[in-house]
């Protein structure tokens, strides 16, 4: 079946512009996660959703970052007034639920470059 | 609360064994292991749960010491396909919100 998809795969933007990153989770997966991976680094947790609700937004780096999920499916991560330090690969993952026994399936990521 | 992974990198010849480790300072509900190849998404390998249950897709074995908050992944009779960066993700909330370590880079050579 179809896996997690993300778009765009690559995004180059100028400093100060807003960007939107999209994630389509696996059908039927109620939990959705956003991570950021900088060059040579691990995965940094940003936010997760159970259904359309985001119980924990503490991982968002600043108030320039926001995310929403609609219809329990597609999620959008928005970065306003982008800065060069926002350059990274943004990964989305989904799982059947929030229990600790569920594996997360990752999408291919969006590589964001802020010039 | 990022877990610490060691060693940072390991090089081994095809057929050799290696152990990579993940250590947390917090009590854990579970430890997840993923492997990422260059330019690709992380791929699920295994979950180790408090209480001893394990779930995994590959013939890779692992252990989870709940008291020490440590997990080890055992790469036995390594194959070239084992090359990649291994990340452990730890769940200290019981809600699958994972904190990932910096990764163990594994290179298997012929």
Overview of the structural elements:
The complex is a heterodimer of chains A (115) and B (110). In chain A, 0% of the residues lie in helices and 50% in strands. Chain A has 115 residues and is mainly beta. Chain A is globular and about 40 Å long. The mean pLDDT of chain A is 93. By secondary structure, chain B is mainly beta. In chain B, the strands form two sheets. In chain B, strands 2, 4, 5, 6, 9, 10 and 11 form a seven-stranded mixed sheet that branches. In chain B, a hairpin with a 6-residue loop joins strand 4 and strand 5. The model of chain B has no long low-confidence stretch (mean pLDDT 92). Classes of the chains: A mainly beta (115), B mainly beta (110). The A-B interface holds A 4, 31, 33, 35, 41-45, 48, 55-56, 91, 95, 97-109 and B 2, 29-30, 32, 34, 40-44, 47, 49-50, 53, 55, 87, 89, 91, 94-103.
Beta fraction of chain A: over 45%
Q: Indicate the proportion of strand residues of chain B.
A: over 45%
Distance between the termini of chain A: 37 Å
Structural class of chain B: mainly beta
Unreliable spans of chain A: none
Number of helices of chain A: 0
| Terminus-to-terminus distance of chain B | 37 Å
Following the backbone from N to C, one meets helices and strands of chain A in this order, namely: EEEEEEEEEEE
Largest interface: A-B, 27 and 28 residues
Give me the Rg of chain B, rounded: 13 Å
Q: Outline the biggest β-sheet of chain A.
A: 7 strands, mixed
| Net shape of chain A | globular
């Amino acid at each position: 079946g179809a896996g997690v998809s993300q778009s765009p795969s690559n995004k180059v933007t100028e400093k100060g512009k807003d960007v939107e990153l999209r994630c389509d989770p696996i059908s039927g997966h109620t939990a959705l996660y956003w991570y950021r991976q900088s060059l040579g680094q691990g995965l940094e947790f940003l936010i997760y959703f159970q259904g359309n609700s985001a119980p924990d937004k503490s991982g968002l780096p600043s108030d320039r970052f926001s995310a929403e999920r609609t219809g329990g499916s597609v999620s959008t991560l928005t970065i306003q007034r982008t800065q060069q330090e926002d350059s990274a690969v943004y990964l989305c993952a989904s799982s059947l639920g929030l229990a600790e026994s569920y594996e997360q399936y990752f999408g291919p990521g969006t590589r964001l470059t802020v010039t | 609360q990022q877990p610490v992974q060691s060693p940072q990198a390991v090089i081994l010849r095809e057929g050799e064994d290696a152990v990579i480790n993940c250590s947390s300072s917090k009590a854990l509900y579970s430890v997840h292991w993923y492997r990422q190849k260059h330019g690709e998404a992380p791929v699920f390998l295994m979950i180790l749960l408090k209480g001893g249950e394990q779930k995994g897709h590959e013939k890779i074995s692992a252990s989870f010491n709940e008291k020490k908050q440590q997990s080890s992944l055992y790469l036995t009779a390594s194959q070239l396909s084992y090359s990649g960066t291994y990340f452990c993700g730890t769940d200290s909330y019981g809600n699958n919100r994972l904190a990932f370590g910096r990764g163990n880079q594994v290179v298997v050579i012929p």
